[in-house]
Design goal:
Layout (H helix, E strand, L loop, with lengths): L13 H11 L21 H11 L5 E4 L6 H8 L3 E4 L4 H11 L4 H17 L19
Parallel strand pairs: 1-2
Helix pairs in contact: 1-2, 2-3
Length: 141
């Protein structure tokens, strides 16, 4: 069964309705912004979250996500100029969402890049680190 705006007894923008239905049925892989940091098992489309937030809130509003999971709604809310509040029973979900929504200034980003560049050589699989071994000689008495 297909529902059209004419079937609803409300005044609705046809462009919004079309975009919302497309977002609901979107099957593209989750990607973009911080969505690739961690592939949370129960993730959903950022396009859907973005479309719903844009449709039902205004910039400056607060968006509540009581089951935030991987933080998709919180990321999209921030990108659209909304405040985001999320909760989850999973400590992994709260950790991931906090990491994905933490704003870093240019100084912090420069520090992370510098740290990452130093690790690059140490973590290379092509040039594994040389390990020093200590030998202990045991004598049988």
């Amino acid at each position: 069964m297909t529902i059209s705006p004419r079937d609803l007894d409300v005044d609705i923008n046809l462009e919004f309705f079309t975009n919302f239905v497309e977002a609901v049925h979107n099957r593209k892989p989750v990607q973009g912004y911080t969505h690739n940091f961690y592939r949370y098992p129960a993730r959903f489309s950022p396009l859907f979250a973005r479309t719903a937030i844009a449709a039902f809130t205004e910039p400056g509003d607060t968006v509540l996500d009581p089951f935030m999971g991987g933080g998709t709604t919180l990321v999209e809310a921030r990108l659209l100029g909304r405040q985001g509040v999320g909760t989850d029973i999973s400590s992994l979900a709260t950790f991931i969402s906090r990491a994905k929504t933490t704003t870093l200034d240019s100084h912090a980003i420069a520090g992370i890049r510098s740290w990452g560049a130093q690790l690059n050589d140490e973590l290379s699989l092509r040039n594994p680190p040389q390990r020093a071994f200590s030998w202990i000689e045991l004598k049988v008495l």
